[in-house]
Amino acid sequence: MSISIGHIRLRNRVLLAPMSGVSDRPFREIADSCHAGLVVTEMVASRELVEDRADMVRRAERPLKGSLFAVQLAGREARWMAEGARMAESLGADIIDINMGCPARQVTGGYSGSALMRDLDHALTLIDATVTACNVPVTLKMRLGWDDRMMNAPELARRAEEAGVRMVTVHGRTRCQFYKGKANWNAIAAVKKALKTIPLIANGDVTTSADIKGILADSGADGVMVGRGSYGRPWWPGVLAERLDPGSGMTAPDLAGEAELIDRQHQSILSLYGHDHGNRIARKHLGWVIDRKLEENRLTPEAAASWRRKLLGESDNDNVRLTLRDLYATLQDAEKRAA
Length: 339
What we know:
It is built from 14 helices and 10 strands. Helix 8 crosses helix 9. It folds into 2 domains: 4-244, TIM Barrel, CATH 3.20.20.70; 255-338. The protein is α/β, with parallel strands linked by helices. The strands form 2 sheets. An 8-stranded parallel beta sheet has the order 3-10-9-8-7-6-5-4. It has helices at residues 25-33, 46-50, 54-60, 78-90, 105-108, 120-133, 153-163, 185-194, 209-219, 236-244, 255-273, 275-295, 301-312, 317-338, and strands at residues 4-5, 8-9, 14-16, 40-45, 70-74, 95-100, 138-143, 167-171, 200-203, 223-226.
């Protein structure tokens, strides 16, 4: 199977979710090089992009390397969404994704993100403006609805398709659930039924190959989007894609391969943000690396805590790099002893 967004055909059915503070350029570059089906930027505020706010422009600029480049726009006014879409396209976007799914209070409090699902007529004015403004395909990401009493994702998806949206992604929770409880994969099926020809991507609690099989079976979706399951391992969507459709992704890297990818991500973070700010940005990513090794039973809780102190408490980036190498060397030695 394959997925097409308008004239654009994706390499596989496992996509990397847009995640504020996570899916920045270094993260996406690793995910893309490891064959994620599509990578999407962090949320870009449309008005702030048009007004040339530096961090928004940085998010929307096409990287020098990579395949497809999708920019996710957020906003609450049609004028800014249209101008933001035009600017994102001029900066190199192949796809514009509209955010109607972010549950964060600072976003919904400004009547953006998933707050737009409370007023579908207004939401459609933003969709119409974005589709009309640009020449690249427009996609839409949403939740099941605002709350359990307003599960209107099927209606929004239907109207979005009629307005020219070329793909819809649904996170299987309402806004008021945030990330609590279990994503309702079955509820996504109603959205699939509401669409006529465009692909549906299912999102929410997708971490393993079993999760992918489950969400596809329950929702009837055409593909999946991986978010938090990629923390600490930006190569993971490509690995899951390979397991779903052999030949479309990449095999899981061994520890040496992981070490190389994490080092590349770390160096890219420092290059993009500078050494001081980059050090602070890198800490959460390196913390997730340790969390993964704890989950995999490669580290004891005591060892994980020790490595966390060494890596996350160090302000000298050269020492961080050396400590990261020591961590992976220790993991490789343990693997050899266990073999």
